[in-house]
Design a protein that fits this description.
Length: 255
C-alpha cells in the first residue's frame, strides 16, 4: 500500500487493491506495445530529444520503455511500489519512483511532457482529487510543455456493443446509471469489474467535460486523438477512451 494511502477515498483504495491482484499486475507486466493513437501522438506532438518526460502512472513501464528507446530523459512514477518493482525489473537503470499524481514530489516548471497513459488518471476519485492531479501536472510542466493522457468517455461506451446485449446494458449502462445516481447526480464515475480482481471506480466524462476541466486548471486544449479520427463530435459517440493533448501556456511577455 502506498504511503499516501491515508488521504485516499474508499473508492480509490478499492481501485488500488484491485490493481494489486495477480491478473491486473500480470496484465500490465505483459503489455509491451503502444496503442496506435499513442504512436501518432509520440511522432506528431512530442518534442525532439533532448527533452524531459514525466511518465506518471507508468505501471510496469509499458510506455517508459518506448520513451527510453527514443532517447528521452525520463522520470517514471506510479502510486504502487509493486508496479514500480515490475517496471524496474523490465528496465533496470531507469529513474522509476513511487509518486502520487495528486502531490508530485517534483520541482515546478521542470518537464517538457507529462504523460498519464491508459486511463490512469481515471482511477483517481473523487473529481476534486482528479482536479488536484491536473493542477500538480500543470505545476511540474514547463511553460509550453504538453500534457498527454487518455480517459474514458461514457457516450462512446454507450455505442460500444462488443458484448452480448444484456451484459452490455448491465455492465455499461445500468452500472453507470446506478453509480451516478447513488452519489451526487451524474458525477461521471462508474464502477466495473476488472477480471476477477475486484471493482474499479473510474471517471468517464465526455470529451467536452474533459476539455472544460483542462481549461479550468489553466491548460490550453491542443488535440484529440482516436482510432475514429480527430473530430470532437465523432469521437464523442464512437470512442470509449480517446487521447488528449493539452498545453501549459507560455508565460506572457512582461509589458
Ligand atoms: C490502467 S494502469 C496503466 C499502467 C501503464 N500506464 C500502462 O499503460 O501500462 C493505471 C496505473 O495508474 C496508476 N495510478 C493510479 N492512481 C495514481 C496516482 N494517484 N498517482 C500515480 N499513479 C497512479 C496505477 O497504480 C496503475 O499502475
Amino acid at each position: 500500500m502506498p504511503q499516501s494511502a491515508k488521504d485516499k477515498s474508499p473508492e480509490e483504495l478499492q481501485n488500488i487493491s484491485t490493481f494489486l491482484k495477480k491478473d491486473s499486475l500480470g496484465e500490465y507486466a505483459g503489455m509491451e506495445n503502444l496503442f496506435p493513437a499513442e504512436e501518432r501522438i509520440l511522432s506528431e506532438y512530442f518534442p525532439r530529444t533532448p527533452a524531459r518526460i514525466l511518465d506518471i502512472g507508468c505501471g510496469a513501464g509499458r510506455t517508459t520503455k518506448h520513451l527510453v528507446e527514443r532517447g528521452y530523459d525520463v522520470v517514471a512514477g506510479d502510486l504502487l511500489p509493486e508496479m514500480i518493482a515490475l517496471a524496474r525489473r523490465r528496465l533496470p537503470g531507469t529513474d522509476f519512483r513511487v509518486l502520487d499524481a495528486t502531490r508530485l514530489d517534483l520541482p515546478s516548471d521542470h518537464f517538457d511532457v507529462v504523460w498519464f497513459s491508459f486511463n490512469g488518471l481515471d482511477c483517481i476519485y473523487p473529481f476534486s482529487h482528479r482536479l488536484k492531479a491536473l493542477k500538480e501536472i500543470h505545476r511540474v510542466l514547463k511553460p509550453g510543455g504538453l500534457f498527454v493522457y487518455s480517459s474514458h468517455n461514457i457516450l462512446g461506451r454507450c455505442t460500444r456493443i462488443s458484448r452480448p446485449i444484456l451484459p452490455c446494458i448491465y455492465h455499461y449502462h445500468l452500472g453507470f446509471l446506478y453509480h451516478s445516481l447513488k452519489k451526487s447526480l451524474l458525477q461521471n464515475y462508474w464502477r466495473e469489474r476488472h477480471y476477477e480482481d475486484g471493482w474499479l471506480t473510474l471517471y468517464c466524462g465526455t470529451p467536452r467535460r474533459q476539455i472544460k476541466a483542462l481549461e479550468r486548471v489553466g491548460f490550453e486544449f491542443v488535440a484529440l486523438e482516436s482510432q475514429v479520427g480527430r473530430s470532437l463530435s465523432r469521437i464523442t459517440w464512437k470512442d470509449y477512451w480517446p487521447h488528449y493533448v493539452a498545453k501549459k501556456p507560455m508565460l506572457k511577455e512582461a509589458q
